[in-house]
UniProtKB/TrEMBL annotation:
It is found in: Cell membrane. Residues 291-310 are annotated as: Disordered. One of its GO terms (cellular component) is plasma membrane. The chain crosses the membrane at residues 516-536, 548-567, 573-597, 609-628, 634-655, 671-692, 698-717. Keywords: Cell membrane, Membrane, Transmembrane, Transmembrane helix. PANTHER family: FIVE-SPAN TRANSMEMBRANE PROTEIN M83, TRANSMEMBRANE PROTEIN 8B. The lineage of its organism: Eukaryota, Metazoa, Chordata, Craniata, Vertebrata. The keyword Membrane applies. It is a multi-pass membrane protein. Residues 499-510 form the EGF-like domain. This is TMM8B protein.
Length: 764
């Protein structure tokens, strides 16, 4: 056949350490039909400061693959919530082969068509809280690329028709496909009139959705006469691929005929008619996908070599499970994103008769519904059992209902199907099932009632059980509980939801309490973070005593909003919010930066120049508000205003030092007992905040930060300048009828314990 190669790529993304599914990077691909091989090229490289990160440490990268829906991963080996089904996925770990780059390859032969999802993450780290912009962070970028090779013009088999084929010596196999519509209970493929070699040395392989593999359903035509391969309970609304392959070492041309027979479960004694009046009758695509292929409603093509001939009647025997029952649809009611309820007509109470199952279908839309959680709940009405020991079994299967005629069977699995089993009885009247990230398409729920006896389960007589059925789609499991937050995430145009846990809780639904914080620990951490702000009371008292009323107001503002911000910011249940979280956070950050600003400006001693000091206070408030609105966690939000204020203070102190010709402040006591201790305390607080703080020690390291910062303010805040009682003659500079007075004691930074008051403006 002819091959077509398609290439797909995605933009590189920065990977994060795994904490929950909300921290992974998800990539969405679509594999076309008839693909024989898919190759993922996984490119990973390091960056640091805009250049290649050769000095960055090697960290392993884990990549997960799954068809139909995102992978449900559990790298931390946490516990899943009860009644949760965990679908499987492929996993691959990438190791580094070069200092700053590595490449991995993942091949899938005959992949399933449709949506494929890749999830990638870094290993869990120690949870260090780093200041943004303090140093160049190592970034690990991941870029997946997909190359697919697909066959075109695959020959299509029509049910009930014989296709002749001659396999040349240089050919090893022939590939066909047939479409299986709904309500098909059996697919029978047969190889007829094998000529050209002794004993028909052919392999017959059949697989649903994709071309067969070496481990697909296989039949050796040399050992089986007639060469018939049957599959019961096939997937509905899918292509089935038939591969006829020669044995190794067989030479010469082999000719044979291939035919397919589909059994309609609504008429188990009859095969499906080869041609129907319209495409809707078989619920098949209007085009089979083959060039010049037969469209439904057309007449059969004329007989030609290697083509379809007139239909040949094939006897079909009745097999167990070929009879199907009516499938009751459900009404889809969309309330919100991933919030969909499926209502049953004449429900939600369902009657399950003793002689036949009750079958329902739940349709999940492609892409839109695979990012949530499919929830199913069965509740038995015990009063409807009339005292009988009845058990109602429910089988949830994807793409085909499991309605075996063997009523004593209590399994939901066959050789080709794997479903989910639910059961309710008089003792356990409630059963739940949760499927995170379900595959889209049709899900069939089959309910049947059996009576328990000494010899096992047997069909009941004259007992119709009544079951309450509830099916719905939700974003997360139980909305992640009280210790988690359900987040709606997006990757390109694909939406999905995941839980982000807090207070030490883990798991897919934040139900794993192995590392959870106790209530006492949560209360202690909240009290430490809130009550440590009381350390601002001494600076407020010092500021009021020294008549620094504006500074005192800023400290009170900081103390108030820092207290209630940390009371609202707690991860557990000990939480108290007086305002919206964003408002409290903004006010806390603004108060902290304004405290630094006004303290340094006060140390510059610009109070005599009243207008200039007021301008600096107002300018600082406006600039800090703007900076916090741009980026609240940036390093320069703290360093920028602090360095600018320190520059103003340095200029003011230098000017006084030059003018007075001695160091300012002039007393060694001021340096030894106030300025140096205050600076050391502030430096220690900054070092703790920038380099020591982690998620585990946050509650007490950040509390120490509060204590140190408030303590440093008490040391650094300058005292109020108080003149001596003996005042010498003041320089008199007249202007506009007023005498301007200069307080020389304040200029020197001296403090006299004697209280004396002067007026800075004297009348002439």
């Amino acid at each position: 056949g002819l091959f077509v190669t398609d290439y797909f790529t995605r933009t590189p993304r920065k990977l994060s350490p795994f904490r929950s599914f909300a921290s992974i990077e998800l990539f969405h691909f679509h594999i076309p039909e008839d693909t024989v091989i898919a190759v993922w090229n996984l490119i990973t490289f390091k960056e640091q400061g805009g250049t290649f990160g050769d000095q960055c440490p090697d960290r392993s990268i884990t990549v997960y693959f799954r068809s139909g829906a995102p992978s449900v991963i559990n790298p931390l080996h946490t516990h899943f919530p009860r009644d949760t089904a965990v679908p499987g996925s492929f996993a691959l770990t990438l190791t580094w082969t070069l200092p700053n780059r590595t490449t991995g390859v993942f091949n899938v032969t005959s992949p399933l068509p449709g949506d494929w999802f890749l999830a990638a993450h870094l290993p869990k780290d120690e949870g260090k809280i780093s200041v943004k912009g303090l140093y160049e962070e190592c970034q690990y970028l991941f870029q997946p690329q997909l190359i697919v090779q697909r066959l075109v013009n695959i020959a299509v088999l029509y049910p009930g028709h014989v296709t002749e084929q001659s396999m040349a010596p240089h050919n090893r196999s022939c590939l066909y496909k047939v479409f299986v519509p709904s309500y098909t209970s059996r697919v029978l493929v047969e190889v007829l009139r094998c000529r050209g070699a002794e004993g028909c040395p052919l392999w017959l392989r059949v697989r649903a959705k994709a071309p067969p593999l070496h481990n697909s359903t296989t039949l050796d035509c040399r050992e089986h006469t007639p060469c018939q391969l049957a599959q019961d309970l096939p997937f509905w609304q899918h292509w089935y691929y038939v591969l006829v392959e020669k044995h190794p070492g067989v030479l010469g041309t082999i000719s044979f005929q291939v035919t397919v027979q589909l059994t309609d479960c609504s008429r188990p004694s009859l095969a499906r008619p080869p041609f129907l009046p319209s495409g809707a009758s078989m619920n098949m695509p209007h085009s089979f996908g083959s060039a010049g292929g037969l469209a439904l409603g057309d007449s059969p093509p004329p007989t030609s070599p290697n083509d379809t001939k007139q239909p040949v009647p094939i006897p079909v025997t009745s097999h167990a499970g070929e009879r199907c029952w009516p499938v009751r649809p459900t009404l889809r009611n969309e309330l919100d994103t991933f919030s969909v309820h499926f209502y049953i007509f004449f429900g939600p109470n369902v009657s399950v008769p003793p002689d036949r199952p009750a079958v329902f279908v739940i349709n999940l839309l492609p892409v839109l519904d695979s990012g949530g959680v499919l929830n199913l709940e069965l509740r038995l009405n015990v009063s409807s059992l009339c005292g009988e020991n009845v058990t109602v079994f429910g089988c949830l299967n994807h793409e085909v209902p499991l309605t075996s005629s063997d009523n004593t069977s209590v399994t939901c699995e066959t050789e080709f199907l794997a479903g989910f089993l639910l059961s309710v009885n008089a003792t356990v009247s409630l059963s739940r099932l949760r499927i995170p990230y379900p595959q889209t398409g049709s899900w069939y729920l089959s309910l049947r009632s059996l009576c328990a006896t000494e010899h096992g389960f047997e069909p009941c007589t004259n007992v119709t059980a009544e079951v309450y059925l509830r099916a719905y789609l939700s974003p997360c499991i139980n909305d992640c509980g009280i210790y988690g937050q359900c987040k709606l995430l997006r990757t390109n145009n694909y939406l999905y939801a995941a839980c982000e846990c807090k207070a030490g809780w883990n798991g897919w639904g934040c139900t794993d309490n192995a590392e959870a914080f106790s209530y006492g620990f949560q209360l202690l951490s909240t009290l430490l973070l809130c009550l440590s702000n009381v350390m601002f009371v001494p600076p407020v008292a010092i500021a009021v005593r020294s008549h620094y009323l504006l500074e005192a107001a800023v400290y009170i503002f900081t103390m108030f909003f820092s207290t209630f911000y940390h009371a609202c910011d707690q991860p557990g249940i000990v939480v108290f919010c007086i305002m919206e979280y964003d408002v409290l956070q903004f006010c806390d950050f603004l108060g902290s930066l304004m405290s630094v600003w006004v303290t340094v400006i006060a140390m510059a001693r610009l109070q005599p120049i009243v207008k200039q000091a007021s301008v600096l206070y107002l300018l600082g408030a406006m600039l800090l508000s703007m900076a916090l609105q741009m980026d609240r966690h940036g390093l320069w939000n703290l360093l920028g205003p602090s360095l600018f204020a320190l520059g103003i203070m340095a200029v003011a102190w230098t000017a006084r030092t030059i003018r007075r010709r001695h160091c300012y402040p002039p007393t060694w006591k001021r340096w030894a007992f106030y300025l140096c201790p205050g600076a050391l305390i502030a430096a220690a607080a900054v070092l703790l905040y920038a380099f020591v703080e982690t998620e585990e020690n946050y509650f007490y390291i950040h509390s120490i930060w509060h204590l140190l910062i408030a303590g440093s303010v008490g040391f650094l805040l300058p005292p109020r300048a108080k003149p001596s009682r003996r005042l010498g003659p003041l320089p008199r500079r007249k202007g506009c009828g007023y005498q301007l007075c200069v307080n020389e004691q304040e200029e020197l930074g001296l403090v006299d314990p004697a209280v004396a008051s002067i007026n800075s403006i004297c009348t002439s």
